[in-house]
Specification:
heterodimer, A: about 200 residues, mainly alpha, about 75% helix, about 0% strand, B: about 270 residues, alpha+beta, 12 helices, 5 strands
């Protein structure tokens, strides 16, 4: 029954005191918010804190949400974006640029082929480090458009800028990422060939 | 399609659209142009890498402790919402935070508050010290009984003091000199031997003052405020220079230790 409701309807019921509606809304939206904060910060602690702050904000200021101005999902991403920025300003750089992929994603995928798992892990580690090393406004559009698969319009609404700005930033960010990944492949050329060697 | 048109078309597509189903014209141009083809190849490699990362992190979610903390906060705030009362942000945050906020974060906040306290304490100390220094500067410097070497370096550096303070001695000559200096500025500084001075009339005092003034040579220009302040006359014996006899001089020393005037006695 509740699962069929839209985000806006769930929010209205939650603000009226319906705990089940709030739970459904939280479980529906917490994953993308958590992953956005995780991809932006590289820290699961910061991501959990941001997720909690976003839904606390929804409890406190949910009545300020105006459905005519945009979807609830974009509203939550906008709130999360601000909390991520605050958390990044507070936290130490080494906390952010640690080794997140190995800790966070290792236990998620059970690879049928172990050699393929190693290759994927190394690739995702390199990509995530490259994403984390981008300047914040470039990282933001990469996470929103590429990793969250958000449309340019939604990303522009979340980031509070024009669609053209999103496009240009994304274009520039892709060029920077390609160069960084090429550089990392040149530094560690054995990564891509490791899988082939293990298979053979 | 030109290279510029190719870039323009590619920029309007997302990474996934560009890799999965590019426009036929875009693909044709990439096949013809080596540079654009290489660029499209890099974008495809990047998309594959991003997809790997996306796949590996797609199952990540916040831990159950976050949901528990939020539900606890919701139960606190729900009656407030139902009653239509403005909710208390602090209590809501406190309800959610204790079990879910990482220890490192709480410690960082503790140190942040400690840093603010330290800065405030430093400001208080600086203000206190500044006030003390200002008070010390504004207080009048005590008048020293002996001449300082500042204004009359060649005279006072090597000169032993023969007569320290006229006011401390009751000899007639010293009394006269002291009275002369005092009469010229103020009548506040009076020699201690007031019994001898009591017999001297006002007219004789003025005469003596005019006589004594004639022998003094001013050593500095000063404003009326500082020259009107208390001063003392000190008799000093100067070392013998080219002449065989040592020189004796009366020096008028101001309250600030600077020499106002000097008179050679012999």
């Amino acid at each position: 029954m509740l699962i069929a409701l839209t985000d806006e309807q769930l929010l209205a019921q939650a603000l009226a005191g319906d705990e089940d509606a709030f739970t459904v809304l939280y479980r529906r939206r917490q994953g993308p918010i958590f992953r956005f904060a995780l991809h932006m910060s590289g820290s699961s602690q910061i991501a959990e804190e941001v997720t909690q702050e976003v839904f606390l904000f929804l409890l406190q200021r949910g009545q300020d949400f105006d459905a005519e101005r945009g979807a609830l999902g974009a509203f939550l991403f906008g709130v999360a974006r601000n909390y991520v920025r605050r958390a990044l300003e507070r936290s130490y750089p080494e906390h952010v640029l640690g080794t997140p992929v190995e800790e966070q994603a290792e236990s998620l995928m059970v690879e049928s082929d172990p050699s393929e798992g190693i290759a994927r892990r190394q690739t995702s580690t390199a990509v995530w480090k490259a994403v984390l090393s981008l300047p914040e406004h470039y990282r933001e559009v990469v996470v929103l458009c590429d990793l969250q698969e958000m449309s340019y319009a939604d990303a522009a609404e979340t980031a509070g800028c024009a669609i053209g700005t999103i496009r240009s930033r994304l274009h520039r960010a892709h060029d920077m990422l390609s160069k960084k990944l090429q550089h990392s492949a040149a530094v560690a050329p054995g990564i891509s060939s490791m899988a082939a060697r293990c298979v053979s | 399609m030109t290279c510029r048109e190719f870039k323009h078309s590619a920029a309007s597509l997302t990474l996934w659209e560009l890799v999965q189903a590019p426009d036929r014209e875009v693909q044709d141009h990439a096949d013809e142009c080596a540079a654009c083809g290489a660029w499209l190849g890099r974008q495809r490699a990047l998309a594959a890498s991003m997809q790997t990362l996306q796949t590996r992190t797609s199952g990540l979610e916040a831990g159950p402790s976050v949901e528990r903390a939020l539900l606890r906060a919701f139960r606190q705030v729900a009656p407030v919402h139902a009653a239509g009362v403005e909710e208390c942000t602090t209590s809501l945050r406190l309800a959610a935070m204790p079990n879910s906020t990482p220890l490192a974060l709480r410690l960082s906040r503790f140190f942040e508050i400690g840093a603010y306290v330290a800065v405030a304490a430093a400001i208080v100390v600086v203000v206190f010290l500044g006030v003390r220094i200002l008070q010390r500067r504004s207080a009048p410097a005590p008048v020293q009984s002996q001449a300082r070497p500042a204004a009359t370096k060649p005279v006072l550096q090597t000169a032993p003091v023969v007569a320290a303070n006229v006011s401390a001695k009751a000899s007639p000559a010293n009394t006269q000199v002291a009275r002369t200096a005092a009469a010229r500025r103020h009548e506040r500084v009076q020699p201690a031997g007031s019994g001898a001075r009591a017999n001297v009339g006002r007219a004789s005092t003025e005469d003596a003052a005019s006589d004594a003034d004639a022998g003094y040579v001013a050593l500095m220009f000063c404003d009326p405020l500082s020259c009107a302040a208390e001063s003392q006359v000190v008799r000093m014996e100067l070392p013998a220079g080219q002449s065989s006899q040592p020189q004796v001089a009366d020096v008028v020393v101001g309250y600030d230790g600077l020499v106002r005037a000097v008179r050679f006695v012999n």
